[in-house]
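Async update (no meeting this week)

Hi team, since we skipped the sync, here's where things stand on the single-chain job. The sequence we agreed to prioritize is pasted below, unchanged from the tracker. I ran it this morning and attached the output directly underneath so nobody has to dig for it. Comments welcome in thread, and please keep replies under the output.
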Amino acid sequence: MALLGTCAPIRAGGQDLHSQSAAAVLTHDFADPDLSYLLLDEDGRVVAERWEHAERDIPVGSLTKPFMAVAYGRTHASFPKFRCTGGKTCWLRRGHGTLKVREAIALSCNSFFHQLVAHGGPEFPAAMANFALHSAGDQASSQSVTTASPLALARAYLELTRQGHEPAVAPVLQGLALSAKSGTAKPIGEALPEMNVLAKTGTAPCTHKKRAPGDGFALVMYTVEKPGAVLLVRLHGRPGYMAAAVAGRMIARIETGAAR
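Output:
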């Protein structure tokens, strides 16, 4: 494990948290070998890290959906609505019904984003490439796998918060806020009831030597109003909502700063 950074402050919920303190809290309280994490400050600098080869591309599942939405929004006049009928088209078998992009992000609707990519048009792949995301297979296929390095992905999320004035980005950030309140990342919001957070979950194919059916991911940014600290979590062999619960506890512990 590498702990990077010395005394650069993290802005989180109006408080300054020194990187050494944050790293010590995570090291002390979250030693599970199945847990990987990256903590970045508002400038994208690594504050604490336990993630082998965080600069290498891996499948990151639904964490790419917000960037799909932004890429679409930047190449089209407006966002569409799509209907999710469930079944084999989405993780929710009964379907999500008709969704706008904000709700589709919050609920991480597979069907919505399959349709969004299919309607993306010729400029969509280049717009996606701007986020350092890489797709293996047909962009319009639901079987394609999008990969990114964990470090680049966390920094790309941070950059989105700086672009919240853009028409293509604003509803995406609203979806990330809704995800923490009532969507797939709800465990994060429940762990941090006094904070405004942006969050997203995902489940992706396992890349560990000891294989599991999949790994759960959760990303959380501390503030809605301005760029803040970013925490990316991966939980080996568990789904995204469980990774979200761990991420929420991690931030709560950093906020209190005291050992148990």
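Quick observations from my side:
The chain has nine helices and twelve strands.
Residues 210 and 236 are 9 Å apart (CA to CA).
Reply here if anything looks off.
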